[in-house]
Amino acid sequence: MHLAADIIARVSRRLADHAGLELPAWVVETRTVARCAALGCDGAAYVELISGARGLGELGKLVEAVRVGESSLFRHLPQISTLTDVVVPELRAKRRRQLAVWSAGCSTGQEPYTLAIVLARALPDVQLAITATDVSDEALADARANRYPTAALADVPAAYHDAFEVHDDHVAVVPELARLVRFEKRNLIERGMRARFDLVWCRNVLIYFSVDARRRALDHLIDATADDGYLFVGYSESLRDVPEVEPVRRGEAVYYTRRGLVAAPRAARTATPLAGVPTSRVRTPPAGVPIVPRVLVADSRIVLKGTPDAAALTSELGARLAEHHARVIVELDGADVLDASLVPELRRAAAAARAAGGQLVLRATRASTRSWLERQGLALEDAP
Length: 384
Ligand SMILES: C[S@@+](CC[C@H](N)C(=O)[O-])C[C@H]1O[C@@H](n2cnc3c(N)ncnc32)[C@H](O)[C@@H]1O
Fold this sequence. Notes:
- The chain is 37% helix and 16% strand.
- The chain is of the alpha/beta class.
- The chain folds into three domains: 5-66, no CATH class; 77-257, Vaccinia Virus protein VP39 (Rossmann fold), CATH 3.40.50; 267-375, Transcription Regulator spoIIAA (2-Layer Sandwich).
- Bound molecules: S-adenosylmethionine.
């Protein structure tokens, strides 16, 4: 049985509206044909069914049939290293007692269990709460079952093997780690996650979404990320087009933070002078002129020397940002003394730069400067 192009298009549209999914026509056709055969109906009747409120159950089955649920334990190790080597030290510096984590689109549970295993070891004194969500009941049932083929252990670095119970025909995450993860059914394109999370992982999910659904899902993910939190997407996914977030480390467009950023309404973003900067010193653009990255001009560089004064730095940063520089680069190596009073100024400037569609980049090559930045929880761009 083949389906007419308009039937495939209508089924595709329904999938995109309901779950954000945008899939090749042949995938939609083969799965729909299989569902029609199971129900004993033709394509036109099937579209009618899934378009109405009474067809929601069947729509769920179609989503189960088309979705890609591939996952593995310790998937993409370089990203796990980024978590342990970059993010965890920053979290330690913040002396967090509790950590809320969201694995969005968790499939059969390998991702949230990996996070539980890695974070429990890296932050033994921190109370972890991991929420793992997916649109698929089948995936969530498998995730809760916590049973993986013995061969899955091959994906796990040997140092973490003790996080698993090995049975005759399967392995399982040890109960004290498994119980850190709570599974919930959630559709990412629907708003509803009220909590704020320190770490949000949404890897290999948005790539299956339409442009529109990706943006909606990102709005929800960003809203659910704490102001100084981290959002991880899949290593092949980029958020370069999303002004509310920035890469934690340049050249690894896989994870982003929105440190200190208060979500700005996208349609009406205008330059905001930095708090505490005398307005006479800041050249503000005409009110109501939206600032988008394409109107920003070249990089601007500020080189710190001696003992930089926080108020002077604020003022200088404000002036540069108001001139719409795409990136303001602050070079810290020349400073003899780096005072903690600079930290809030740098954070505020980073937030203001992001709100204006630009970026504040901190640069340092000296080990002492770099470790000072790390202790303050400030992100550093590796100098090219
Ligand atoms: C390829 S898996 C990714 C699993 C895991 N994040 C990883 O990277 O290993 C994609 C998952 O996204 C889920 N998904 C697809 N659309 C979704 C939606 N609208 N809301 C929530 N989850 C969705 C699928 O059910 C599937 O389990």
